[in-house]
């Protein structure tokens, strides 16, 4: 039997805001992602030039070499507005919490083979600094890029990276202690194995072009790093050596990489498919930063994989090239 | 099961330290001044970023958990409100005009705050302030979006909000809030933190955000009220940050004190001028009043703010000197503003009206010194004229203040019968100001304020007509062309409430919801 509940029905005068209607082809119901994203950033009649960057307007598309007829061509395939974003992360956070509890309550950290534990402390812990650098870089892209379609995901990404840095810290505290964190920081600042990567990260801090920074950080570096460290070293190699509990502790990162790369790929694709000029610029950046990232990650890979690092990294680079080719940029 | 060696348990503060500050390192491949290029030019001296006291210790996992819970509740209420036609439960349709003012004047500013805090967070080398700023940046996009989502339903049934982004960048009076935030985000990162983090979020938020949300609660607007209450715990964090910023900067170097004092003076005045819109909203636009503007100023600024500045006295900070003039204006501000909007009702995206007898009595009781003497006779005259069919719409453009961009409607401090004019000659041009304070702000940074995009100047220069308009054709109607540029629909979005479609529809819909016609 059907129950027909009724409310007083009033015919609305319109279904959405005019700016949304202009963009979605008429006055029809719009999604919360659309109403929370499209045209959110001011575009006209700015009052003053930034005292910190008088060459540009407050929001200025000319801060990047990428040219778009419409910056709202950039859409987040995850349709993240704040509410959808926090709810998605809260769910992952729940899983992460359960995983940490599981490992802690069963004393699984103590069951790890010593070699695995040591490798994890050596390879994983310095990466909290890389994540911290990414937090800063994504804040930068959010602040200086043009159009909410492009800028919005970067504040989420920035805070995700802070979260990741904090999860790595927790892994460090669980498998080691505060001294392990300090030792990892010392290695990050001093040891040869990490200097290529640290130089890479510090060099990205001075990139002024927000789209290039997106490429260097989110596409190239993270594209190789997450695939190498989380998917290859932790999930494959260490797991086969009795390190499965570690994979539980880093599940957030693995899932996060799988999710966010959809957005990264979509963003690369939209920028590159706009024009031949854009495609050439994107290809140039992607090649340059991919090669630098691969070179910087090799000594890091060797800490865990020894001689097999070259092969593993080559495979990761190949996967990355395939991803980018699918996004329309052949490298 | 093996027993692990008992580890030293970290205290909350230590744990938070390894979760944030421990992440940072001193770079060596790039120079600090290249990585953080905006740290020097404002003249603020920071010797030790580690002295920063974290105002709250929230790791990201906890942040996601709490915020997601709040979002779930908020959207459940918004959905219920929409499904039930909650908008028909507001006191009367005049109330909806405060919602129009809010979404076109305030919500876009939340967005600027989001970008501004991302910029400030990126600019500061200290991990403590960076994390606090970025978390606020994330909160601010929340506020912008939850406001748009809550108010979206009003837009479906009422006029004036349908193109609020477009209007925010163009409509004359919206340049007042817009230029305020443009001013803040174009300042250096330290000044941004003092302007928005401290002056706006800490000192003035009770006079801006709170009146709208309390107004919503008093007037049966569940939707708006809910996002306000939901944002409250974020705002509490933002206020703590604002206060910590000030204390941190002041403690770092005595040379910072005069710079910060000047910023506090400037931003208290700039903020107060924007509050002109709130003052008239409180005294005229809410059918059910929460408190008068004057009472709000006395409680939230004179009492609470007074205590705050006493507390800051140990750093050498004093009460902004503009407080004296504000005290002189508090009997007049809202009336002068409402009179002006009543005049310019043809060019605004909300309706105005004359208060009824009960409301006049309320105003008399709240403003015994000024209302009956200066404003009631004016209103009675306008009401009479309107009754005779002579509702007056001013079509002459007013002169604007170069700094706050409000029409020159304010009177001389201490003389409510004389309009206050100030002017400055700068590089061969004459600039006009509503007050000594706006004039001083200009004189300190003339190169900044000569850039102001003044709506009236722009209209006269022909920059506010739709593309392709020919103002030389016979019978050219400049107001009509400007309204087209605003995308403001004549006869629906503007004019007196009494003849509005909002009023008519609301009466009809409410009848449908409450009677069996």
TrEMBL record, chain B:
Record lineage: Bacteria, Pseudomonadati, Pseudomonadota, Betaproteobacteria, Rhodocyclales
InterPro entries: Ferritin-like_SF (IPR009078), Phenol_Hydrox (IPR003430), RNR-like (IPR012348), YHS_dom (IPR007029)
Native organism: Thauera mechernichensis
Start and end residues of each YHS domain: 411-453
Protein name: Aromatic/alkene/methane monooxygenase hydroxylase/oxygenase subunit alpha
Gene Ontology MF terms: monooxygenase activity
Record keywords: Monooxygenase, Oxidoreductase
